[in-house]
# Entry
Amino acid sequence: MTTTAAAPGAATIPPPKSVNIAITGKCNLKCRYCFYANEMEGLKDLPTAAWLRLFDQLGEIGVRDSCISGGEPFIHPDFFDLLDGMIANRLRYSVLSNGTLIDEKLLQKFETGKRRLRLDYIQVSIDGSNAAIHNQSRPGSFDRALRGLRLLKEAKFPANVRVTITRHNLDDLENIAKLLLEDVGLNSFGTNESMPLGSGCRSDADMSLSAPEKLKAMATIGRLLRRYPGRLNAAAGPHSKRKTYGEMASAIRRGEKTAPWMGTLNSCGCIFNRCDVLHDGAIVPCCMLPTLVMGNIQRDSLLDIWRHHPTLRALRERRRIPMNEVPGCESCSFTPYCNGGCPGLAHALTGEVNRANPEDCLRKFLLETGSGRDLLA
# Structure
């Protein structure tokens, strides 16, 4: 097992709280915006024994939980053996699924041992209030996904939904909210948006939102938040941008920073808390940075990489870079109030992590929507 050169003080860095694991690249769907599709096509799944050794390692270093994804994780023939390996090492877990393989027989298997006790949630993807809309993004899957979600809810599993906003479902958001919150009876659901990554890059013109469409999505989300207070959430996409842009606009009006994240390239906090392992064992900072491979669990110590790898060191030091020194942002008057956005998309679109993500740029958004007067008034 190889190690990387230590940085001063690196041994004091605590282990990651969480490790996200794509246990398989196999999937029973071909979603049009899947940013991970390129990697799925070219990488081979690890054998089950290699995953079990990783879970032993995670238990030894004190990792608290893991998010299991794919591909479609329920397609893995040894899914529950892997689950038991996590549980044996005191990890909690969550599962990201397209929902189509969830049936009564599968849910019954969660009743064995501590499988259900250690489960945080199962997240299902729903991208439309009906088959005609949902299936434009996730072909042929609406009825099965919705049935899987209803079974989770009826069996009182902790169930989440993620809605990926695209051009196809933008005008359906209010109907989706009604379906999920009133009909299915979820407490809440989350949103993000289709991004120009992976196969999402190849179908970007047909899937990803334009700036005016993002503005429309923000307005719709605002109405939904008033109708369903506290029942929508997001870490990315129009909902998240609505909050961030609002805070920036307020700070710009006042002429002073109003949040600690403003002014430096510090938008990503993930690299202080978690890392990702792809289905071939590659250790990467995040699934949004799948080409920045730092090692492989079959030969490298995850803790050594977490503490010492220069790629993670550089990502953690991004937040020291003032926005007015970021290439392309030097002359922007908004730099005191900006944080550059997601480094994953910045890397995909510019080839560098120490750049601002063009998809998150407030100045670009205002120019393309003409909404500056309203937002900054």
Q: What stands out?
A: The CA atoms of residues 242 and 303 lie 36 Å apart. The radius of gyration is 21 Å.
